[in-house]
Amino acid sequence: MKVLVLGNGGREHAMVWKLRQSARISQLYCAPGNGGIADEAECLPVDLKSMDAIVELGERLLPDLTVVGPELPLTMGVVDEFVRRGWPVFGPTKAAAQLEASKGFAKEFMQRHRIPTAAYAICDSRDEINDALGHFSAPVVVKADGLAAGKGVVIAASKEEAAGAAADMLSGNMVGDAGIRVVLEEYLEGDELSFLVLSDGERIAPLVAAQDHKRVGDGDTGPNTGGMGAYSTPAIIDDQMRGWLVNHIAKPVVGGMKEEGAEYKGLLYCGLMMTARGPMVLEFNCRFGDPETQPILVRLESDLLEALEASIQGRVSDGDFKWSNDASVCVVMASGGYPGAFETGKKITGLDAAGAVDGVKVFHAGTTKRDGQFYTSGGRVLGVTARAADLRNAVERAYEACGKISFDGAYYRRDIAARAFKKG
Ligand code: AMP
Ligand code: GLY
After folding, report:
1. What pLDDT, in 10s, does the model give residues 9-36?
2. Are residues 343 and 255 in the same domain?
3. CA–CA dist 108, 260 (Å, integer)
4. Residue 272 CA, ligand 2 centroid: distance in Å
5. Is 276 exposed, middle or buried (0-12, 13-18, 19+ CB in 10 A)?
6. Which residue's CA lies nearest to atom 3 of ligand 2?
7. How many whole angstroms from 153 Cα to the centroid of ligand 1?
């Protein structure tokens, strides 16, 4: 079988690594891929912002399955184009991907289907913002409606700051067109949880849950990023909570989308805040999370290919995934300056020594390879991922491996998963 993965991040490296374990795959491609992925799949150049380029690649390869990693091609309608041509493809259609592409759409959808989420207002102008702010109390969360790579959310300590951030978004200066509409949201307190489910449009199968670390700095300080690390353990949620999330969030979403004529097939990522009032949805993503996929897939013991095919073929069932009882953690090593400006082209050393630490797999997120040597090429550079019988050991292994890797300006959080220990 010939399989093509679209994308170039740590998530795609983890998917490629896992798919390679599938006996049915004889040819594995990744486009555009990255330096590390090139060691495990054939990487082909493609501009993921260009539908023509992606379709051309599909025509050339005619894969038996295409797996779309990132949100941009999904929200552009790559799945619709492939389905129209009869090419098997994993992911939601453009209409279904609206759940991620427009936060306003997602909020109104949740309201229509009584899915728990923070109180909100959707605003198109400064006047609307000023009116709406009268109904909120500080802190206020200000979100760009469109895609902003995790950088379109401001937690404003005061209403003045919220008005300023919203005005910056509306002006297009902050996140471009993504901010021409703004969502104001009630601030929620609690632990965050990434709850991912596989859907075939009707049935769902939950994956093991994970916790992301969105802020750049230790102790959850500084600006939001795409994610600085994540962990997953069997204990992160219990069966009762999993059942609640399935029945009150995941199933109503998939059922609601079907009812509205935008069947949701693919991976549905529910970003949750576990508040004192119960779990509430912060956001939906229409794809696997990055970096959550790294610690989740190292715990997966069954065949990823089979699960992806079950989604496409309409036969998802609870038994699609078999999980290890181990804990896992991914520490993201980033370029100094990320999520702001950063330099690339820095030589990376110590990767072999890091990969030799027991239970460790180093996934590449932003690297290139030249003459057998890896260099940095992005903000998030590596996802150093470790698995062990318990979380403490997994964390120790991951940080031991991080300590062996160096590149100019390398930065990583020192407290990934630390919150799990505080809870005892
Ligand atoms: P989002 O892209 O909507 O998930 O927002 C990115 C991050 O901002 C989340 O992972 C949270 O850390 C934070 N956030 C978003 N919405 C809220 C909220 N209503 N209350 C508190 N924090 C939030
Ligand atoms: N880690 C959050 C995301 O994938 O959007």
Report:
1. 999 999 999 999 999 999 999 999 999 9
2. no
3. 13
4. 12
5. exposed
6. 289
7. 7
